Amino acid sequence: MSESANGKAPRRALIVVDVQNDYDGGNLAIKHPPFRDSVANVARAMDAAAEAGVKVVVIKQLAPETSPVFAKGSHGAELHPEISRRSRDHYIEKTLPSAFTGTDLEEWLRANAIDTITVIGYMTHNCDLSTVIHAVHMGFAVEFLSDATGSLPYANSAGYASAEDIHRVVTVVLQSRFAAVLKTAEWIDCLKTGTLPERDTIFASNQRALARSAA
């Protein structure tokens, strides 16, 4: 089996972030990649993790009852059926973007000797991004499955960005420093073979971009 930078095989946990009904055509409908495709990959990753003995943590976002999304007690706040019917090793409810803030996630990971987390779920640019960066600052290695997540479009005083633009840019940024970004099928293959996913650096990513611009 391949080894991580510390000379040991990674001890992974799969972090399933906020796969809730509001994202499935609700008040925060995921647009890219399409929800039906990404949630299928979330399910595939959960099944592969269970088969490989990788612990699964399910996260759920909650908001006040008056909130337009994730309101406590609402259908939109409930876990998507593909997630609720699958087994998990730990369950966390949160109120802020990062799955670490105000929760016992770090304590649970340390207690289970986890050194690598694989983040899936929603949204690429919000709770996933916050969780990934938070994890890196805590010393965890991070993997991110780009087809088991998704984004939606934004327009505000800073401008407009499509769901595809947001998803693409965030995944490129994550791969440059914060996480190994890969597809679900590639991750499942890593579980089976012990191969470690490719990681990159800010400098190398920038150099490739400069070379591409000069070509």
Task: Explain what the structure shows.
This protein has helices spanning about 35-50, 80-85, 105-110, 125-135, 165-180, 185-195, 200-215; strands spanning about 10-15, 55-60, 90-95, 115-120, 140-150, 155, 160, 180. The chain has one domain (about 10-215): Isochorismatase-like (Rossmann fold, 3-Layer(aba) Sandwich). The strands form 2 sheets. It has a 6-stranded parallel sheet with strand order 3-2-1-4-5-8, with helices on both faces. Helix content is about 40%, strand content about 20%. The longest helix is centred in the first third of the chain and has 18 residues, at about 35-50. With about 220 residues, it is α/β, with parallel strands linked by helices. InterPro entries: Isochorismatase-like_dom, Isochorismatase-like_hydrls, Isochorismatase-like_sf. This is Cysteine hydrolase. It holds the Pfam family Isochorismatase. Keywords: Hydrolase. GO terms for molecular function: hydrolase activity.
DSSP E strands, number: 8
What value does the Rg take, in angstroms? Answer: 17 Å
Q: SSE string, helix = H, strand = E?
A: EHEHEHEHEEEHEHH
Mean pLDDT: 96
Largest sheet: 6 strands, parallel
Total of helices: 7
Percent helix: 25-40%
Q: What structural category arises from helix and sheet content? A: alpha/beta
Q: Widest sheet: strand order?
A: 3-2-1-4-5-8
- Which topology does CATH recognise? Rossmann fold
State the fourth-level CATH superfamily: Isochorismatase-like
> How many angstroms does the end-to-end distance come to?
39 Å
What ranges have pLDDT less than 50 throughout 5 or more consecutive residues? 1-6
CATH level-two architecture: 3-Layer(aba) Sandwich
Strand content: 15-25%
Shape: globular
How many domains make up the 3D coordinates? 1
